[in-house]
Amino acid sequence: MELLSLLPDSHRSLITEALEALGVTRWVLSIHDPSFPGLPGEDLGRGSPYSEGAARFLAFARDMGFTGIQLGPQGQTTSHNPSPYDGTLFSRNTLNVALAPLTEPSGPWGALLSPDTLDRLVAGAPGSGGPEVRYLAAYRGQMEALQEAWDTFRRERDRVDAPASILALVRRFADFRLEHQEWLERDALFEVLAARHHTPDDWRGWADSLDGRLYAPRPGEVVQAEARIRELLTEEADAVEQYAFRQFLVHEQHGLLRERAEAWGLKLYGDLQIGFSPRDAWARQGLFLGAYLMGAPPSRTNPEGQPWNYPVLDPEQYVTPDGPGPVLRYLDARLGKMLAEYDGLRIDHPHGLVCPWVYRAGSADPLRAVQGGARLFSSPDLPDHAELARYAIVAPEQLNRSVPRYADGWVTGLTEDQVARYAILFDSVVRAAREYGRAREDVLCEVLSTLPYELSRVMARDGLGRFRVTQKADLSNPADVYRSENVAPEDWVMVGNHDTKSLWRLVSEWQWRHTLRAQADYLAERLHPEAEGREAFSRQLAQDPGLLAQAKFADLFASRARSVMVFFADLLGMPDTYNAPGSVDPRNWSLRIPTDWAEQYQQRLRAGAALNLPQVLAMALRAGGAEARARHAALLGRLDRAASQLRGGAPSLQAPPSA
Length: 659
Hints:
659 residues; alpha/beta; eight-stranded parallel beta sheet; 24 helices
C-alpha cells in the first residue's frame, strides 16, 4: 500500500540532508499505541499502530525525515489498568487489533467481522466521560468484536466447501501456534484459570492452590501439576485456541506494520520493560526472590521513590555449572521474540538488569519500605538487609558510606571481574541484539537522573549512552547531566519523553514563573556562538515563547549527540501530559492524537506553537559559527524557505486517503 505524501518529497530530502550535515544519524519519534490517531468510524476510541489512521500518521513521520519510531511496551493490558508497563511480556495487546481490516472480504483475513457490528460498536463508544470510562468501553467493545471474528473463523473453517482464503488462514494460524506454543499455552491458561476463579487479571486469591503454582510446583507436586495442565488444555481447548487466534491476528498485523515501516525506511524500536504483568509473574514465579520486590529509590525524578511491586529475578538462577540457568533461558526467549519483531530495543530502567533497587515484600507501608531499600548486588553488610549479603558482588571497603546507599557513588570502584558479574543480564541483551544483526546504536538505555557507578561501568563496556532530557536541565549547575553541552555522541537527547510535561506546557509555566529569560540566556549561549548579537538574540527568545520553544528543539541538534528523539506531543504542539510518573490518575496513558491532527498541526505551525523542523535545523546549523554558516549557505537558504512556507500554512497538510 502506498500513501500520498503529507509533505513533498523535497521536504523529506531537505531534512535528511540537514540531519547529515549536523551529524545526526538517528531521528526517532516516540509514541505509544493508544496515542495513534484513527479515522472516523475506524475504532472504538483507542488508538492502534495498525490502523489506517496510524498509517497516514506514519507516512507524515516519514516525510518529516524520521528514521525510526519508538513504540511503548505492546503487551496485553487489563480491563482496569491501561499502563503499558504493566502489560504482558510475550502476549501482544489485542486492543491493538485494527478492526476495519477484519471487515474486508478481500483482505488478509477475509470478512471475519461484520461491517454492521463495527458500525454499531463505533456508534456506541462513549463520547463523554473520563478516560477510565472510555478505556473500559473500548476494551469491552474490542473483546466483543474479537469474539465475533473468532466465531466467524471457526464456522468458516468447518465448512465442507471452505474457501481457499480461509484454508490459507487456517494454515498460517497453525504455523503460528506451533512456533509460539510455549508462551501461548501459559498465557491462555492464566486467562482460563482467572475466569474459573472469578478473579480476572489477578491470581493472588488462588496463589496458594495448585492452580496458583502450576509452573512452579512444590516438591512432590510436579506430576500432579503436569497432569493438571494437560487436563486444562483438554477441557478448555476452545478457550485456549481462541486466545491463540486473537494473538495470531495482532501478530500478523504487527508483521504488516514492520513491512510497511521497512519500505519507508523507518526502524521500529520496541520497549524492553523491566516489570512483569500478573500473568507473567504467575507463569514464571519460580524465577523470583520471594522476600523482595523491585522499585525506584528516591531520586531527582521521583524524590520519594516508587514501590513498583515488581518481582525480582533470583540471582542464583542466572547460571548453572552447565551454562545458562532458568533466568537466562527465560530472558533469551523474551529477547529472541522481541528482536524478531523490532529493529531495536529501548531498555526500560536498565538498573533493574544490573543493580536493581529492592525492598521487602509484604510491607504495610510500601513507600517507606522502598525508601529504606538497597541495591541487590551492592549491599554486603547492611544490618537492615542482612539477607542481601549472599548476593553481594562488592566488598564493604568498596562502598562510600558518606552518601545515601541509593547515590550514584555508593560503590567507589570495581574490578573487571566484578563488572562482568554485574553485567550478566545486560550482556544477554547486547549479545542477542548483535546476533540478530542490530547495530549498537539501536540499543537504547533509559538512564535518566540516576546512573549508579555499577551501571556506568557496564554500559561503558559496550559504548552505550544515556538519555538526556533537556527540559529538566539545571541552568545553575554547569555539570548537570541534562544540559546539552554535557551530552556525549553516544547519548540520546530529547526535550521530553512519555513521563514529562509537554514542552509547550512548560514554556507557559516558564512565562508565569518569570524564568523564561533564564532559559533564553542559556539557549542564546548555546545557539549564538558569537558574543556580538547574543544579548539581542536572548531578548528575542524571551519575548517570543514560540521561538524559544523552537530554540529548545534546536539545542538538541546542536549538541554532540548522534541520536535525537522527540515525543509526539512535543512534535505536534499538544500541551497535555501523557503520563505523570508516580501518580495514580485515570488521565495517565490516555492522551491521543485527534483525527484532525493534520489541520491542528498546520494551525499551530502558523502560530509558532508546534515543531517547525526546517526552522529548528537551520538554527542548529547556524550554532556551528561563521564557518558552518558559510559551508552550508545553500542548505540554510532552503531550510529558511521551507520554514517560512510552514509558518504560512503551505504546503497543505491535509491527511490524504491511501491509494
